[in-house]
Amino acid sequence: MSDITLRRATADDSRRLTRLVRTSGAYAGEYASMVDGYQVGGAYIEHHPVYVAVDATGRVLGFYALLLDEAELDLAFVADEAQGRGIGRLLMEHMIGEGRAAGLDSIRVVAHPPAEEFYLRTGARRTGTVPPAGHTHWARPELRYDLTADAA
Q1: Residue 133: strand pairing partners
Q2: I need a labelling partner for 116 at 20 to 30 A (CA). Which of 30, 95, 100, 130 fits?
Q3: What is the DSSP letter of 102?
Q4: Which whole-number Å values give the CA distances from 61 to 6, 75, 81, 103, in the listed order?
Q5: Mapped to the 3 state alphabet, what secondary structure does 52-90 carry?
Q6: Do the beta carbons of residue 144 and residue 127 sit within 8 Å?
Q7: What is the C-alpha separation between 61 and 99, in angstroms, rounded?
Q8: pLDDT digits (tens, 9 = 90+) for 39-51
Q9: Do 40 and 17 contact (CB within 8 A), yes or no?
């Protein structure tokens, strides 16, 4: 992991992050409608804390986006070929640190169903289920990372 660096994303990362979302194997088949045409725009990146994990060559291996006003993880992706290397865990640990630094007590996650186990392994707890709505035709697990010292 020493060759992995986390940095704040910039608007220039928009195309790479969009490509990572749209090509994610986790959104194949029945889940493809969720990312069809999805865009991680430059204005979004500039407005929200978005952090990318990059390798020594600068290749984006994963990223997350935290909505501070809503205390919610909005996006979290690791490139298919980079999964299983601890990058997702590194991103979640960083996100928790950013949330604490911003004074948040917890961070809500409405998870993609296949990702629920990942969030549980990285310290989130299940709090409920979000029913289908809009382009999402399936129920999604709702989880929460508790950031208070008592919960740590």
Answers
A1: 136
A2: 100
A3: T
A4: 10, 14, 8, 28
A5: EEECCCCCEEEEEEEECCCCEEEEEEECHHHCCCCHHHH
A6: yes
A7: 22
A8: 999 999 999 999 9
A9: yes
